[in-house]
Write a structure and sequence with these properties.
14 helices, binds NADPH dihydro-nicotinamide-adenine-dinucleotide phosphate, seven-stranded parallel β-sheet, alpha/beta, binds magnesium ion, 3 domains, four-stranded mixed β-sheet, Rossmann fold, Rna Polymerase Sigma Factor, Chain: A
Length: 384
């Protein structure tokens, strides 16, 4: 009997894609890769298809399709990506980036597939609708973000009423110790060098501004149905402890591990079972020092917005996410200063006042409007 789990990997050519493929490669007897997508990187996509003999293949941006040399047929375009996510399987992994992951992930759960989600922007923008749909379809939404995987593992479902608060740790990014006066001169090439994790450019800039942690506060509030005042952030540069759950009796459960996305991915794909990944062993005796700090909100004002937008949880997170994506893109293209990323998001949040979205299309509308406002703001005020 074939007990292998069938996996579809959206965003196979990215950093989450790479960690997922490492996990699948090590465990070929446990997993079948039945679908993959990439956006532009047709060279790597072809290699992946040939290595894993993946039957369903999508390149979401058609422009490089001619260079495809994988052995199985290629489908192109965003609609093919959505169709891919609907193919019946055990788990769809979403390693897509930004709001591009919204429709495919929603298609996956609507079709009855479990979803292992790294793409936090989707949950930030449409978390409530996703959680409702997952209940309706009886599918699991399994967190891949390391902090959320930590909380997921420490949460005892029968003890949820005794939960006091949770702590999300933050590495603090590359500029943790840089004097604030130097922030305005930060260049893209420095912002994408993360001290702990090797990740895609967008999330690396988010880590540098600590907007990543703001997104994670929102992500946690959605995934675990926790109010914002029950979410604490602690800066922990070594990033060995990923998250803590504090119970009212004073007991605290923490999740530790070396920073490697293979572990949260394995938790998500195997839950509630665990498998042997044969990784380097972590010994507390060999770790000389673990440090913790309060976040510096003057240097990282974006972090505070994570709590603030949860006062209007239906639409403010959408605006925050959309304007941040626009601001990060403009920063990476050298059009705006590093410190203006926060200013653009803050001003867009104050400018937009949409009504409460009822469905995914409403969310996309608010997202589009916020992007337009953020772009106009950049042109009017922040262009370098
Ligand atoms: P990458 O930039 O490394 O990879 C993104 C992937 O999505 C690539 O496969 C890329 O294809 C594809 N892609 C890019 N743009 C589009 C688009 N418009 N439509 C469809 N597909 C697209 O990102 P990461 O892997 O670092 O991050 C992915 C998600 O996971 C993000 O939401 C991030 O916040 C989250 N995350 C990442 C972590 C990490 O360790 N990297 C940790 C926790 C969360 P191509 O390569 O062909 O361009
Ligand atoms: Mg994280």
């Amino acid at each position: 009997m074939n007990n292998k789990k069938n996996i579809i990997l959206l965003g196979a050519t990215g950093s989450i894609g790479e960690s997922s493929l490492r996990l699948l490669r090590k465990n070929k007897e446990k997993f079948n890769l039945v679908g993959v997508s990439a956006h532009n990187n047709v060279e790597l996509l072809s290699k992946i298809v040939n290595e894993f003999d993946v039957p369903n293949v999508v390149l979401s941006d058609p422009k490089n399709a001619k260079s495809y040399y994988g052995k199985n047929e290629l489908y192109v375009g965003h609609s093919s990506l959505i169709e891919l996510a609907k193919i019946k399987c055990d788990v769809v992994i979403s390693g897509l980036i930004g709001i591009s992951g919204l429709y495919p992930a929603f298609a996956a759960i609507s079709a009855g597939n479990n979803l292992a989600i790294a793409n936090k922007e989707t949950l930030v923008s449409a978390g409530k609708i996703f959680m409702k749909k997952s209940l309706e379809k009886k599918v699991k939404i399994l967190p891949v973000d390391s902090e959320h995987s930590a909380i997921f593992q420490c949460l005892e479902k029968n003890n949820i009423t005794n939960l006091d608060f949770i702590t999300l740790t933050a590495s603090g990014g590359p500029f943790l110790n840089m004097p604030i006066e130097k922030f305005k001169n930060i260049k893209p090439k420095d912002a994408i060098k993360h001290p702990v994790w090797k990740m895609g450019q967008k999330i690396s800039v988010d880590s540098a501004t600590m907007f990543n942690k703001a997104l994670e506060i929102i992500e946690a509030s959605v995934l675990f149905n926790i109010e914002s005042d029950k979410i604490e952030v602690a800066v922990h540069p070594e990033h060995i402890i990923h998250g803590l759950v504090h119970y009212k009796d004073g007991s605290i459960l923490a999740n530790l591990g070396f920073p490697d996305m293979i572990t949260p991915l394995s938790v998500a794909l195997n839950w509630p079972a665990r498998i042997d990944l044969n990784l380097k062993k972590l010994s507390l005796n060999k770790i000389s020092n673990l440090s913790f700090f309060e976040p510096d909100f003057k240097k990282f004002p974006g972090l505070k917005l994570g709590w603030e937008v949860l006062q209007n949880p239906d639409y403010s997170p959408i605006i925050l996410n959309a304007s941040n994506e626009i601001a990060v893109d403009a920063f990476l293209k050298n059009k705006v200063k590093f410190t203006d990323i926060y200013n653009i998001v803050y001003e867009t949040l104050n400018f937009c006042n949409p009504s409460v979205p009822q469905n995914i299309d409403d969310i996309i509308e608010i997202d589009k409007l916020s992007r337009m406002n953020a772009l106009n703001l950049i042109k009017r005020k922040f262009y370098k």
